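[agent] plan:
  1. take the single chain provided in the ticket
  2. run structure prediction with default settings
  3. attach structure tokens to the ticket
  4. add a short note for the reviewer (M.T.)
[agent] executing step 1
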Amino acid sequence: MTKAQAVRAGGGARRLLGWVIRLALVLVLAAGWAAWELHAAGSRAVARLQDVTATAVEQFDAFIGRFSAAAGQFDASAVAPHGRIDITVRMLRVEPALAPAESLFLYDAAGHFIAATVPLQPADTDVSGHAWFEAAAAHPGGPMFMTTPAAPLGQGAGFVISQTISDHAGGVVGVIGTFLGAPALRTLITPPVLPPGATVSLGQAGTSPPMLAFTVGTAVSHPLLARALEWIGEMPRIGEIAEVPGGLDLRIDADVFAGLTVADGRPVLEHGGALASAIVILLWLFRPRRRTEMALSPAATRPALPAPELEWGWEIDSRGRLVGVAGNAPTPLLSAVGTNFLDLIADDARAKDLREAIAERTAVQDLELCIVLPGNPSGAARRFRVSGRFVADTGGYWGTAEEIQSMETVKEAAD
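[agent] step 2 finished; step 3 output follows
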């Protein structure tokens, strides 16, 4: 490998390293942006899950409140057996407010039947041995929420919500309650909107398993998204626990990113477009530039030239464009930086000699050229003695020029 080839190879390696550094910068910025966007999207999804969980708690709380209000309309006098018809009529009026509950029933303190809004089954005249009744009678007040494999009035397995009725002395004289089947309770505690794959559960505080648990839909999280979340340290699964009346916990677990919508993707695209534009602008602003001011290339890259009477220096690139001038260069040449140097030469024959030397990468020595300076009147030129040599690391030429005689002076002498 020649010295010139080695220099060019070194320049190519430096340019490649520069582009690798730029690409790494772009990737770091893109990764940082993606992590920030994923975190923001996760925060929005968590906030939505908290909202729907609060909605579910409010729905269940409202039902318990309706039941308490209905149960509060029945006092100790309602427990008297002789008032069954009157009590049943009052229950039928109150029951619609308890939807989706299926009935309303009343038992005395011994568990004997008083009244109900549905036909009585023979086995339901005495519930003193039922777990839900014993728990309710042992804890005055209410409401109390319990699961039961055999609810009163023949409804089967489900959930009983009950409340005690006390006399003026504070003693329990009866228990009033309503019944919810599993489908009805599921409808009651399911928020209007949930992420796919969300699990809803309801149970006694601190106990496991819950009394009721079910999953809404199917999780649709993309595996690549899950890996990205794991990479940035996000926890894609969260749980919200909320205590409701009766010592119950309502819990909603969901992969919050499974619920991301098109609306969530819009800011990602907008911010991504803004980031890409900013990166392009930064790369353009800080792109490497060839120096076009008066100073020439560093002295270490210029070959030494025998120019004992150096007047000014010039440099052109591999395409013949004037890169810069130095020293006592004519002022008009400053505005010619960036133009083709050969286009400034008025003498075609001499310009041909210079063009051939540049093509063959050979040195020129004391070549007399007529150079038309930008901004001068038509035909006005100056004659210079030009020398120069090929510069291997740039592919251009660096040289010196010395003015011989102004062509304007020659024309004036001839006139």
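[agent] step 4 note for reviewer: Residues 3-71 form the longest helix (69 residues).
[agent] ticket updated
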